[in-house]
Structures are given as C-alpha cells and as structure tokens.
Amino acid sequence: MTEAVLEVRDLRTRFAIHGASIEVVRGVDLAVAPGEVLGLIGESGSGKTVTGLSILRLAPENARVSARSIAVQGQDLQALSDAAFDELRGRRLAMIFQNPVGAFNPAKRVDWHLRQVVIRRQGQDAGWAEAARAALIGVGIPHPDRVLRLYPHQLSGGMAQRILIAMVLALEPDLIVADEPTTNLDNIVERQILALFRRLQGRLSAAFIFITHDMSIAAALCDRIAVMYAGRIVEVGPTAEVFARPRHPYTKGLVATALALKHKAERLKEIAGELPNLAAPPPGCLFAPRCAEVMARCRGEEPPALGPASHRVRCFRVEDA
Ligand SMILES: Nc1ncnc2c1ncn2[C@@H]1O[C@H](COP(=O)(O)OP(=O)(O)O)[C@@H](O)[C@H]1O
Ligand code: SF4
Ligand SMILES: [Mg+2]
Questions:
Q1: Disulfide-capable partner of 228 in 26, 42, 71, 283 (CB 3.0 to 4.6 Å)?
Q2: 296 domain-assigned
Q3: For the whole model, what pTM was predicted?
Q4: Binning pLDDT at 50, 70 and 90, where does residue 265 land?
C-alpha cells in the first residue's frame, strides 16, 4: 500500500458508566492510503461511531481515549493541544454526520458557510463566490445561486447533505470520516447521495473512512472493508475479496444477510444473538457466543489478527485453513 495518510495503532476508548469502566473500542488498528475509501462496517453498537469520533477528538465527555499512535500525514495528533486540534479539524480533518442540518449555523445562509470554508483554506475570501458556486455544481446542485441564499432550515435533508459534502470537498482535507451519511434520507435521495460518493471516489486525494451498518453500501462504495465487532476489527481486506470470500464467521453472516436482502429472500437470515456485554466480556473470542463455527479453544483464548497483511482476520479457523 502507498504511504498511509491515516495511521491508527491500538485505539482504545472507555466510558465511565455508573462507576464501571467499559472499553467499547478495544485496540483498533487502521491505515488508510490517499484516495482510498475504507468502509467501517458492523451492526449497531459495535463501536464504529466512537472509533470515528475518537480519531477526530470528538468523543463524548465521559470517554477516555488512548492509542499507541494516531497520525495523519506522519503528524502525531495526540501531541496537539485542543486548540491546535480544532484548527486542524476545520482544515485538514473533516467529519460528515448523519444529521447534516445540525452541522450548519442556523442563523447564517449557505453562502456564509461556504465563504468560511474558503477563508479557512486560503486565509482570505478572494474569489469565494466563484469557488462556492463551483463547489455546489460539483455535488450536483445545478442552480447554485438560488441555494446559496437559503437558510439551513429551508434545506431538505438531501440538499443539506450535498452542501455539507461540497463544503468538506472544498476544504481539500487529508482525512474525511463520514458516519452513516445517508441513514436519515429517504431511499431515492439516499441513492443519489451514494451515487455522488461513487462519482467522487477516485477523484479525492483524502483518506476516506465511510461508516455504515449496511454491507451492500460498503461493497458498492469502498476499496477496502474493515468489519467491526464488539470494539474490535475482526476482518479487514479488499472489498471484492471480503465480499466474495468472507473469512470471519461474523463477516460471513453480514454478507449472507446483504445477499438475502438483494435477492429479496422471504426469510431474512440474520445473525442470531446479541453483542456481548462489554462490562463483563466473555473469555476468549468475543464472537464465540454467536458463532456457528465455535471450537473449544475459542472460549479460552482471544484470536489474534491472522492471515496475510492485506487480509487480516481475528479467527482461529483461519489458522486451520
Ligand atoms: N456517551 C456514551 N456513554 C456511554 N456509552 C456510550 C456512549 N456513546 C456510545 N456508547 C456505547 O459505545 C458502544 C459503541 O457505540 P457506537 O460507536 O455508537 O456504535 P455504532 O456506531 O457501531 O453503532 C455502544 O455500546 C454504546 O452504547
Ligand atoms: S475464533 Fe472461534 S468463536 Fe471466534 S469467530 Fe473464529 S471460530 Fe468463531
Ligand atoms: Mg454509529
């Protein structure tokens, strides 16, 4: 892989809840190359959002984040003061959330927001109106002048998400984290926004982490897929390979569910069981209580990441294969 833009080593996030400390991100390693889209997938509650927020120093107040390293373009983010980090977040690091309207200042029109982006990127606003129009046209808004005059409450969810994406692209950041950016949109608008992301793919130089619980979205959009379960990455590899030949039993379940949905199977084969209680995690493999391929050994030891560097899997079965 080309030199990574983002390199995360042993990221851990704990929450203090009712006097107990619960580790919900449990030693995550990630590396994302320039122009690469990494899909971070897994069922609700597996720790995807907290991972994204922890990298961008946006985790909730009661979170304790630690890592061996979090580096962007070789720069150690953990060494930065909060003020220096904020500065970076407005310029080189960007996050796209589920609720785009909440990302706008409600008292300011769209043009004000785009002007701030231009000022942040180049230190002054010269040529900002032209840049704003071009940014909106770039995300498929054909009449930018009308849209630039609107206030956030006048935007539909899909329009707001498009504008937010335009703002992020205009920053030309090194790292973009998008957290389920189409979840709150209706189906047609969701498809349009996904098509927009697909058009952008390959034109971006940023490292892009795309968080979704939907395997088919990840398969359509991402270069590589990292599957998260109970705070750990259990499988990571090239999308085509992970989708065609999933190796971790959990990934197999996600792929089977996605295929069943695609073929509109009458009985959807969901993965039975629930995420483990991380306040009292089971010994051994965290997936063992739900795993169809569980062996005696799995209940005593936690599997390390196995397999070639390009396709790692945390499962003892990979060792046998
Ligand atoms: N502010 C918080 N306080 C305590 N626990 C939290 C907080 N935010 C998230 N969690 C817990 O962290 C775990 C991971 O959550 P999250 O990253 O949101 O999952 P995902 O995005 O994969 O659905 C969940 O068990 C969730 O309940
Ligand atoms: S290590 Fe064992 S329990 Fe865990 S996923 Fe592999 S086979 Fe299943
Ligand atoms: Mg989430």
A1: 42
A2: no
A3: 0.94
A4: low
